[in-house]
Amino acid sequence: MVAKSTNSDFWKDRKVCVTGGDGFLGSYVLEKLAERGATQVFVPKIEEYNIVEPEAVKRLLADANPDLILHLAANVGGIGANQARPAEFFYDNLMMGVQLMHEAWKAGVSKFVAIGTVCAYPKFTPVPFREETLWDGYPEETNAPYGLAKKMLLVQSQSYRQQYNFNSLFLIPVNLYGPGDNFNLETSHVIPALIRKCFEAQDRGDDEIVVWGDGSPTREFLYAADAAEGILLAAERYNASDPVNLGSGEEISIKDLVTKIVEFTGFEGRLVWDTSRPNGQPRRGLDTSRAKERFGFQAQVKLEGGLKSTVEWYRKAREQA
């Protein structure tokens, strides 16, 4: 096991801006920054700084005056949301990322950590996904606009490093999950959506739940606390623009994933597979060796334990509500 970083000296007196800091992943990043002793952390709220807009980006940088930017902010959603709003997902993610990195370089920010997406990989990438294969084909169609918008940050990072020697990183996390996730059925990813479906089916006394696709695709998931640790380790130890995967190394079929969630939530009905709905990318599983080699990151939370924690968190949140 890789020990957690105790590199408090890196964060001492360093001014950090965390876009998306009030989101799901952001909450874990802020918690780990606090553990490391970071005291000057600026979290822009979208109501004050809509960084899709150029003037908001400039104002943000003037107000925060950061040494380091962790760019977590994104407009995201599951397959349904990507199909319904592809133009939004393309424009918003492209504009907020490209403008922020450009203005950060102009403002003299010393380090920029960009968070990409596994959706940037080609649809038929050989498993495990290796960073060298990022340009070997077009992404899966249902989320290609989002994936390509994020992928442009890699191009920008590499070109700005080449021409301006700008110290920027590009990290590629797989699908995240964990306590505090987004459980909105319209915009959530597969794990929180399935957990909510199972609980609500029990509430109604339903004897079945409907699941999109046929269950054959595989996915890899990363516990959000692990993702946050990987991001901060990269910020502390990595200084290159080669893309780096952040994953758990556990590939699971959607069918097996649903079976586990059904078990952990206690739902006793049957599963109905709606094959008129898209499966998405056929397989997803990452080669995570580069993250371990370059900055010592290795995921600690196994999927089964992480799923149980997420189900229990949601169960308690429902009871409190």
Structure characteristics:
11 helices, three-stranded mixed β-sheet, 321 residues, globular, alpha/beta
Describe this structure in words.
The chain has helices spanning 8-11, 24-35, 54-64, 79-84, 86-107, 144-164, 190-204, 224-237, 254-265, 289-295, 303-320; strands at residues 15-19, 40-42, 68-71, 111-115, 168-173, 175-177, 208-212, 218-223, 244-246, 251-253, 270-274. Helix 3 (54-64) crosses helix 5, helix 5 packs parallel to helix 6 (144-164) and helix 7 packs across helix 11 (303-320). The protein is of the alpha/beta class and 321 residues long. The longest helix has 22 residues, at 86-107. Helix content is 44%, strand content 15%. It has a six-stranded parallel sheet, sandwiched between helices.
Share of residues in strands? 5-15%
Compute the number of helices. 11
Sequence of secondary-structure elements: HEHEHEHHEHEEHEEHEEHEHH
Q: Give the class from helix and strand content and strand pairing.
A: alpha/beta
Helix fraction, binned, reads 40-55%
Mean pLDDT: 94
**Largest sheet data:** 6 strands, parallel
Distance between the termini: 38 Å
Per DSSP E runs of 2 or more residues, the count of β-strands stands at: 11
> What global shape is seen?
globular
From the alpha-carbon coordinates, what is the Rg to the nearest angstrom? 19 Å
Low-confidence segments, ≥5 residues, pLDDT <50? 1-5
- Strand order across the biggest sheet? 2-1-3-4-5-9
